[in-house]
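Handout, page 2. Input:
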Amino acid sequence: MATTDGGTLVSPGETAQVDHSPAALRRRYTSLFRPKAWLYYCDTLVSAALGWGAFAVALMAPRFSLLWAVAVVTATFALYRAVLFIHELAHLKRTSVPRFEILWSIFVGFPLLVPSLMYVGSHGEHHRRAIFGTDRDPEYQPIGQWSKAKVVGSTLPLLFVPFLLVLRWGIFGPISYLVPPLRRFLVGYASTLVINPTYKRRMPEGRMARRWMIEEAGVALVCWTVIAAVATGTIGFSWMFEWYVISCSILVLNHVRTLVAHRYHNDGTPMDLLEQYRDSVNLSGGSLIDAMLAPVGLRYHALHHLLPTVPYHSLGAIHRLMLSELPAQTPYHVAEHRTLVHAVRSLFGGRALAHFLPVRSSGVVARR
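Output:
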């Protein structure tokens, strides 16, 4: 039952009746690897419509009233779900769900100033075996070794991100096409969703460069349209306040989810596929709150690292099959947390996860 890179999902001495290597899972569950285009369209449109509808209610409700609070919370969670489809865009073949990226950009990415280029083209590096968990990984830092104060403090800069996004896309972005040094800096350090501040993005080339130009133009148009509308009194500053509150709330939710998506204990050395899996976390409780806090399949982040091409709507089914078919206490099971709240408690409790750390032994990753 070895994986394609020599690891195994079963501890030494245990057996399972079914092959659960990534290659075998792809053969057995071919249909589950196919994206359902209609679901991508409907899920995104419904989430965006609910989010922007609640946003409109928040604008009309007395600020800080109960109706305002309910509308803001609803808008936050609905748009949070919608924006996290950027993760699916990073893995989807563009032809598998035609024009989905255009739809997502118009209704979600551009209005929230988060174009898909901020993830598409960089997130793949997080999955590369030679890069994952190293200082070249855009989405990895040794958070498991941070103090509680540093973990909490990592949330504070998010309060400035909405303003920085306006500057990046509305002001400096257009200017950078005329100033090459500024362009290199913006592309390298101010165009990617990362938790590793040392990560440097490569300059886009060819078709990707044209794609960047189109997306940057779209976001800049949104910025200048809103600025002009505020300047002329077409919309009030209250609109900007609601947008800021909801944007910050989305950023904080995503940051908390990211903090517990991995165990972040790697020492900087490259990790094979199964070690990536064991450094990642599945939320197995199945509660509604976890579905809201880690939507679009992100509850099954460890499984996603094992099978990164599975669409979000199939991860739950494969996860349940794996749990039912594998012996108890296999490496697959130890990647679980019951809930996101439980994972956060582990983070602030020192994680107590020494027995979960990957161990290399004769090509097999075994549990301590």
